[in-house]
Design the sequence.
């Protein structure tokens, strides 16, 4: 109970700071969907240049991808930009939650299929790193 | 590639038969046959064969000719598939070809069952082709004659009602010189078994009846033979496709045994007859198994030996080899008993290879030899693989407990100059046994 | 192409699975009804112990005379059928589709292994193609139907391998792969591929006759 103020105030502040910094870093230089959370990769990381993608897709609303959660459902109203996907989508998710791999696949393929644009097949995203 | 059309053989029965046909008539009969007598077996076999060709090596015709049109699947391809593809509406000439394939190029030996992973029974399919040909009246002249004989006399060889007991009494009389007390008991009600033979025995192999009587006499068994029609256990109607006559013949045979109230039927050394009595006719007549227990000579001799009823003066010294007839090996699993009997009788047995259930056919059975002289060469040349198999044993005596096998094997032995002779178990037992005074 | 892909992995996939499963059930049940109606004198002899004993021999490589006498076909046939089932059922790409859209997941083979198995299937198809063309006894009995079913299986696995190796336009190749696979599934109950459904029964039946009536082995 003693540590309550610290966790209540300091930790979020720290987190916001860190995430903004890393977010800013990621947005500009991101070339792939972040894969750090996975212990082992079975395919090459999916190519994804954040800014170029959004520019091409005409995406300005962050919540198109960075959604929140409400009552166990996707909540498009809350903006979670800056929070790593893996923070909510555990790699090994509990029942009822969406695991990280499925979240990524759903996010990309789902939108690409709806928009009828962008890669949808395994090989069009998971490309070996260009040499 | 050559097909059946390139090797047609003139046969009066086939030629006249197709002369009466039209494509419409063929279609009508074919459709009736498929709707009436064929079911899930035919449908499955027709629809699932993946044409892998693995069955080729099963067939002695293919192994002898190395011609792809002789494989089991090729025979089906040239007959049943053609019929199904055309929904039965084919030229009469196609029926000629179907008949020649079905009656003279397949012995229904079922060796191909050991090759088809899907278990497709080519013998069954070919039997249905024969059934169609029979219904269309397109049957080889010689085998049709035997079917006519069955129909008119209840035996295969036109043996008349009085000739039959005459022959038995003649053999009894003959044997009296050697065995003064010997009887061939006719119509003895309640005997342990009824002994039945095929009609060629009284017709031209009477010594086989003599020998059997001598063996039964020496063994002191209770037996009888019928004096009436119903004595012949052979059944060429089964092979001509005439299921109705087939059933009449077997009904007469079973009912004769029932009239005599015997415990069982012991059949002479014939394979196809055993198939008819043991496996085929009972079903047509609506019995799951035969109404009277049926025992083949091989098994009966084995029993006599087990019971010590046959004593030998000596064993057969020359090396012998064993031919496994399809209808009692693949048809009844008598391979071990056959061997035990032969080993009891002979000093030196050389197995041929392949043997037991995997043995090559004699190429005479299945009614093929009964199609007569026009097709004789086909079945002899079509079994050079058997000649090679026999030759490889290096022996001069061949034990074959089946009449058709004898016929077929004698033919290839003479054609390929094999210097062998064939023997029935009865020949050997008669020759070697202690004969009572 | 997106629309076609969407159609192929969505409605068409369901249609293909439905036709395959319901069609197979229908074929099996109607064949059973036909057997009971028309083949009663043969159904009567069915003996499961003998059928199973025989099937155990036939599912063992070189366990039956036919296998031993055709060693090449035997090796290829066994590899082909094992890979044909294992590769697609445990392929990550397939599991991911189910996982993504339905949340169903099961263990996958490592990609390299699945790739090898798929290439084995393609190679086996090439071998079967060669046999149909060059082995006289096979060629003699080959019909257009046989080319069709071989092409269906061959094309499905070939496009799968090409898509995995990202040869050709990936969306096109993957879509083609999905469509071929669906055509193959739909074809199973209604073509010679139905030996997958009936083969065990036809073998089991003849094994019963051989075992319980004829006391002889049928392998």
Sequence:
């Amino acid at each position: 109970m003693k540590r309550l103020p610290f966790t209540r105030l300091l930790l979020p502040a720290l987190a916001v700071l860190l995430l903004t910094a890393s977010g800013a870093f990621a947005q500009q230089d991101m070339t792939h969907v972040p894969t750090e959370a996975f212990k082992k990769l079975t395919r090459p990381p999916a190519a994804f240049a954040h800014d170029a993608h959004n520019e091409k897709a005409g995406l300005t609303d962050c919540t198109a991808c960075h959604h929140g959660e409400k009552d166990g459902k996707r909540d498009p109203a809350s903006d979670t930009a800056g929070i790593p996907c893996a923070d909510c989508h555990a790699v090994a998710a509990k029942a009822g939650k969406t695991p990280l791999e499925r979240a990524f696949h759903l996010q990309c393929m789902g939108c690409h299929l709806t928009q009828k644009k962008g890669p949808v097949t395994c090989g069009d995203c998971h490309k070996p790193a260009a040499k | 590639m050559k097909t059946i059309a390139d090797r047609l053989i003139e046969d009066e029965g086939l030629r006249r038969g197709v002369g009466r046909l039209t494509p419409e008539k063929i279609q009508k009969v074919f459709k009736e046959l498929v709707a009436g007598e064929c079911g899930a077996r035919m449908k499955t076999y027709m629809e699932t064969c993946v044409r892998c060709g693995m069955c080729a090596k099963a067939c002695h015709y293919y192994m002898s000719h190395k011609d792809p049109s002789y494989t089991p699947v090729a025979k089906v391809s040239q007959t049943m598939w053609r019929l199904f593809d055309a929904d039965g509406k084919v030229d009469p000439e196609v029926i000629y070809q179907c008949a020649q394939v079905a009656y003279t190029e397949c012995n229904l030996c079922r060796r191909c069952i050991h090759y088809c992973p899907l278990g497709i029974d080519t013998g069954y399919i070919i039997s249905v082709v024969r059934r169609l040909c029979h219904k269309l009246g397109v049957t080889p002249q010689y085998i049709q004659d035997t079917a006519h004989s069955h129909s008119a006399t209840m035996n295969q060889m036109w043996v008349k009602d009085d000739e039959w007991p005459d022959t038995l009494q003649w053999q009894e009389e003959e044997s009296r010189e050697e065995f003064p007390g010997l009887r061939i008991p006719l119509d003895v009600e309640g005997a342990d078994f009824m002994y039945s033979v095929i009609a060629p025995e009284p017709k031209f192999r009477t010594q086989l009846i003599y020998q059997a009587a001598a063996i039964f006499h020496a063994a002191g068994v209770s037996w009888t033979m019928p004096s009436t029609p119903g004595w012949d256990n052979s059944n060429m109607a089964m092979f001509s496709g005439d299921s109705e006559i087939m059933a009449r013949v077997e009904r007469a045979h079973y009912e004769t045994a029932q009239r005599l109230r015997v415990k069982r039927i012991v059949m002479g050394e014939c394979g196809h007859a055993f198939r008819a009595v043991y496996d085929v006719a009972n079903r047509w007549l609506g019995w799951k198994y035969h109404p009277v227990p049926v025992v083949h000579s091989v098994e009966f001799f084995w029993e006599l030996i087990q019971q010590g009823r046959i004593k030998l003066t000596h064993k057969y010294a020359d090396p012998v080899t064993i031919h496994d007839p399809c209808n009692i090996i693949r048809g009844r699993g008598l391979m071990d008993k056959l061997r035990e009997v032969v080993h009891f009788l002979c000093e030196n047995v050389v197995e041929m290879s392949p043997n037991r259930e995997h043995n090559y056919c004699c190429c005479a059975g299945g009614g093929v030899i009964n199609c007569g002289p026009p097709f004789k060469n086909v079945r002899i040349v079509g079994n050079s693989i058997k000649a090679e198999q026999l030759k490889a044993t290096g022996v001069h005596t061949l034990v074959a407990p089946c009449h058709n096998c004898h016929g077929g094997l004698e033919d290839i032995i003479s054609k390929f100059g094999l210097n062998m002779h064939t023997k029935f178990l009865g020949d050997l037992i008669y020759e070697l046994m202690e004969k009572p005074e | 192409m997106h629309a076609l892909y969407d159609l192929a992995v969505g409605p068409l996939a369901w249609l293909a699975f439905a036709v395959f499963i319901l069609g197979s059930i229908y074929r099996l049940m109607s064949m059973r009804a036909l057997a009971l109606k028309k083949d009663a004198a043969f159904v009567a002899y069915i003996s499961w112990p003998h059928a199973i004993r025989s099937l155990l021999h036939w599912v063992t490589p070189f366990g039956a005379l036919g296998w031993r006498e055709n060693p090449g076909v035997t090796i290829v046939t066994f590899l082909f059928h094992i890979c044909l089932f294992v590769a697609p059922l445990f392929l990550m790409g397939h599991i991911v589709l189910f996982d993504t859209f339905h949340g169903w997941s099961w263990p996958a083979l490592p990609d390299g292994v699945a790739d090898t198995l798929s290439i084995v299937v393609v190679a086996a198809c090439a071998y079967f193609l060669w046999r149909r063309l060059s082995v006289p006894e096979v060629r003699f009995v080959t019909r257009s139907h046989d080319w069709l079913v071989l092409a269906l299986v061959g094309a499905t696995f070939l496009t799968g391998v090409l898509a995995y190796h990202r040869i050709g336009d990936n969306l096109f190749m993957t879509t083609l792969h999905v469509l071929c696979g669906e055509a193959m599934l739909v074809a199973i109950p209604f073509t010679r591929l139905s030996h997958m459904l009936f083969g065990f029964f036809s073998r089991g039946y003849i094994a019963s006759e051989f075992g319980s009536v004829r006391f002889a082995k049928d392998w």
Observations:
- Chain A has one domain: 30-125.
